User: What shape does this take?
Amino acid sequence: MRRTFLHRVALVMVTGAVLAGCGSSINHAVSTVDSTVDSTVDSTVDSTVDSAGRPTVDSSGRPTVDSAGRPTVDSAGRPTVDSAGRPTTAARTAGSSASSPYPRTITHDKGTTTIPARPQRIVALDASLTEAVVLLKRPLVGGISSEGHVKGFPSYLGGAVKGTAEVGPVENPDLEAVAALHPDLIVSATDRHDALYDQLSKIAPTVFVKTTEPQWRQNITTLGVVLGAENEATAASAGYHQRAKEVGDAINTKAGNPTISVVRFLDGPTRLMQNATFIGTILKDAGLARPRSQDVDAVTLDVGEEQIRQADGGHIFVTSFSGGQAAKERFERNPLWKQLQGVKAGNVHDVTDETWMTSVSVQGAQLVLDDLARTFGVDPARA
Assistant: This one.
């Protein structure tokens, strides 16, 4: 619509000039119109990103409304909803993205990268980014499937990764395997592969986010721009935020605002999961209360058996990762564990580490919401 309007304005201007005897040919006039409109539209698209190449965002890094019609967000970071509580039309649109044309230059954590065309052979070198590419329905030829003792792509990704080659492990990606896939884009994170950036950039255009877990939601928006999937990213974010609120509200209403503790057992220190973790952001987005030891803007609090009381909560969700089962059994034998209010009330819940801790994705977050809804017996609010 904007391009049509600009064509009309430019045609009026050029026609006026021709009638006034400026001597320009009609063909030249039409060419002028096209170049004027293209320049104006490109300028308008460019104005929707900041100096770092990201969509205009609020203080929390969430996208705000812009001249391309992408939605605003409320104070909690959720897209504006209509009177029926549904995301706005712009937030619901999940069709082909109305993105700026390629080639486009992306400013990212390691510099700037020019992507000549919309990527068709993508390699993602982090499990979280692998799931993000799948979420945005873009062609993923290679990826990192998982971490630690877990092998293979998560079952919940289904056929979406049927043709995706494993190029891990994440600690030491197989660069020869990456190159053999002939990617036209590589995505990873600085805190994962900082030392490999130059080598990867020689294989294909490479874009790095800073990290994954603390900013997993922001990374969806970033990849939406990189992959030409802005609308898909907006719709996925809107759907997640809306569902998190609905499930959280239902739990608080039914269970009287329960306090949720999350404990992760490892082959080493036992960790209480705080707000800056993947699970911490989900519980915060759902509006669920946390114990004092975990309701802080940090990642984890490591505790020994003598500090076991800090793991207490109205409901205690526990996971075990790579050798953590032995530590879990030791804790459970400790008399201090048996004195926790959540334990005495029978509110200890074993959940899967693969989804609650390591998925770091919208898909994983949706499964966490499934677990929460099932535990408290509320409507899962699945669309």
